[in-house]
Amino acid sequence: MNRTSDPQIGFVSLGCPKALVDSEQILTRLRAEGYGIVPSYEAADLVVVNTCGFIDAAVAESLDAIGEALAANGKVIVTGCLGAKGNTVRDLHPSVLAVTGPHACEEVLTAVHTHLPRPHDPFLDLLPPQGIKLTPRHYAYLKISEGCNHRCTFCIIPQLRGDLVSRPIGEVLQEAETLVRSGVRELLVISQDTSAYGVDVRYRTGFWNGRPLKTHLSTLAAALGELGVWVRLHYVYPYPHVDDLIPLMAEGKLVPYLDVPLQHASPRVLKAMKRPANADDALARIHRWRAICPDLTLRSTFIVGFPGETDADFAQLLEFLAAAELDRVGCFTYSPVEGAPANALADPVPEAVKQERQAQLMALQAAISAKRLQGKIGRALTVLVDGVDEAGAAIARSTADAPEIDGVVYVENGGKLPVGEFAEVQIHAADEHDLYAETVGSRSPKRKPRRKSGVALK
Ligand code: SF4
To answer: Residue 58: its pLDDT value, please?
Structure first.
């Protein structure tokens, strides 16, 4: 039973049985959240109109219904097939609060929450709007999809999590907005295969604050770039459309950082791994990206000792690394995972050889990383302060450093910098992993770089 104090929704459902099911799902969710459903415009605080756009008569009926709801109530959210037809609704009824396409329960709920806040729930409302986060308050992971359509032979993730399922773009952006409002300064976009975002839903149009947006990585990245915080992309395969992201990085809309898991550079090994990439293409692409955005930081991971990997394959991997000059590299020795097709491959590489190859790769990459970090000495950089160490230095990160996996910037005189906020620093030293800096304008004494040890190269 509705309590009179609960916010009340009026609902008009038009169209075919598929639209009817969408209406049922939306109404079920609204009721579960404590909204009341009322049969008249006058008794409603807001009206949702689920439209049909199949034939001209249906379009006319839907537009009339929207007009009627606007005249009688004034607060109207439009969903359904007509919403997917470009600007048809907004052209005739510019005062509607939001427009979504069909099968867009989450987006409708998001629009309702924006214009008619969810009723108080004494249990749920003990939680902050962004939910419970295990990360520090100033950064958060933003998962945009689940599962994977690839079938890399060393991996069982598709068996465990299924094929790719992209989250609706409006829902992802709403979550990102809520996080930013709660104090998050850096969003870390993650998934199994970030570049594939939207493939499963054929890049269908979703809605964010009434704006139609394609479910596509480029569209999502551009919209996230409007939120005014650092947006960092992880697990991006070097597909052609990733090229579109680089100008956004050069313009400062996205952090100039790409985490591209390449795994190997020998075409033979990549084929045995069934990887969705080609090393020559990847190298050419990296050069092109850097020409557009010279500040681009590239991170990747590699597997050495995959079954059948020969000395020549490994030499090809080292050659690739020398040519690509990646900034951060993680290197793992191959180990079988129960259920992975690679377990059945011939010519396993002896453990000692795997270890030797890992050490060789790490030594090469250490020199590359050190050289690239040396190139930053003397530069002024914006950093995000993560904390303060026992010696009173701020531990911060530049755009080149993802939390937990990359190096850091020690700001030696930064003990008083506010944690979770940005600061301007000047770099004065570097080692293989980290940078050393002081706040801009400071004259504090410079300390020598300290050495750190670690397994995976950064
Ligand atoms: S390694 Fe990555 S791309 Fe390959 S199947 Fe596993 S999750 Fe998918």
So the answer is: 85
Q: How far apart are CA 365 and CA 317, in angstroms?
A: 11
CB 341 less than 6 A from any atom of ligand 1: no
Q: Supply the residue whose CA is at minimum distance from atom 3 of ligand 1.
A: 150
Q: What pLDDT, in 10s, does the model give residues 71-126? A: 999 999 999 988 877 688 999 999 999 998 887 888 899 889 888 988 877 766 67
CA 170–ligand 1 middle distance (angstroms): 26
Mutate to test the pocket of ligand 1, among 143, 151, 152 (most ligand atoms within 8 A of CB): 152
CA of 262 from ligand 1 middle (Å) equals: 11
How far, in Å, CA of 249 to CA of 2, rounded? Answer: 50
* pTM for the predicted model, two decimal places: 0.78
- Residue 444: pLDDT band by 50, 70, 90 thresholds? very low
Q: Which atom number of ligand 1 is nearest to the Cα of residue 158?
A: 5
Please, which pLDDT band fits residue 51 given cuts at 50, 70 and 90?
A: very high
Distance of CA 277 from the midpoint of ligand 1 (Å): 12
Instruction: Please enumerate in sequence order all residues whose Cβ is within 8 A of that of 146, keeping only pairs 6 or more positions apart, or say none.
Output: 161, 162, 164, 165, 167, 191, 192
What is the C-alpha to C-alpha distance for residues 37 and 116, in angstroms, rounded to an integer? 13
Look up residue 297 and give its two tokens.
């930081």
Q: Indicate whether residue 152 lines ligand 1 (CB < 6 A).
A: yes
The closest alpha carbon to 398, from 413, 415, 385, belongs to 385
CB 276 within 8 A of CB 282: no
